[in-house]
């Protein structure tokens, strides 16, 4: 399927002048002592745990989870932005997003996403954890994707032919630093303005969504214009 739709991966800016801190990773810390550790909290943390073996295979479970009382606290000198990193991080919930960001997203054609309230001490604005339904690794069309090791600048760039998911799993055990240059996914995902793919980590946004976010002056946003993984819809 040939398309002209462009996608770019987005992330939180690591720039101190934008996020206010120099760790390059996060602005907010989970405030453990203020969390009410009830049934909702335990169900939430049990699911969004890196050790959860069913995480990618049963993503519809997310929609049954209730919002726990998770609270955060801004780091000293950290600036409040619309997209922020936090720590310690829950599996699959990489950042927190402002109400402004969420309202914009609701007006676009995104993959299904679920929101969970995240209260930040002394911050009146609403923030959320967001889980975007994710295309699992085994749904990638490997014989149309491009996987490489090395770098052009060090003259050791090498492409690897991978024909299927099981072959990819074996390959990654021996070559963990291999990366995707292009990921081919089923064509039914074409037209979505927000796409999540398991091995890519950072979300993919359509060019029109990126432009709108920038026009609306969404803060803390970093767009990988020059080094995003290419998407192909097959």
Structure notes:
It is a single chain. The chain has 234 residues and is an alpha+beta fold. The chain folds into two domains: 7-136 and 186-233, no CATH class; 142-185, no CATH class. Helix content is 17%, strand content 31%. It contains five helices and 15 strands. β12 (194-197) and β13 (204-206) form a beta hairpin. It is globular, with a radius of gyration of 19 Å. The termini are close together.
Q: In a nutshell, what does this entry contain?
A:
With 234 residues, the protein is an alpha+beta fold. It has two domains: 7-136 and 186-233, no CATH class; 142-185, no CATH class. The protein is 17% helix and 31% strand.
List the helices and strands and how they pair.
Blueprint: E1 7-12, H1 16-19, E2 28-30, H2 39-47, E3 71-74, E4 83-90, E5 93-98, H3 99-106, E6 113-120, E7 127-132, E8 134-135, E9 146-149, E10 158-160, H4 165-174, E11 179-185, E12 194-197, E13 204-206, H5 207-215, E14 221-224, E15 230-233
Parallel strand pairs: 2-4, 3-6, 8-12, 11-15
Antiparallel strand pairs: 1-13, 1-14, 2-3, 4-5, 5-7, 6-7, 9-10, 9-11, 12-13
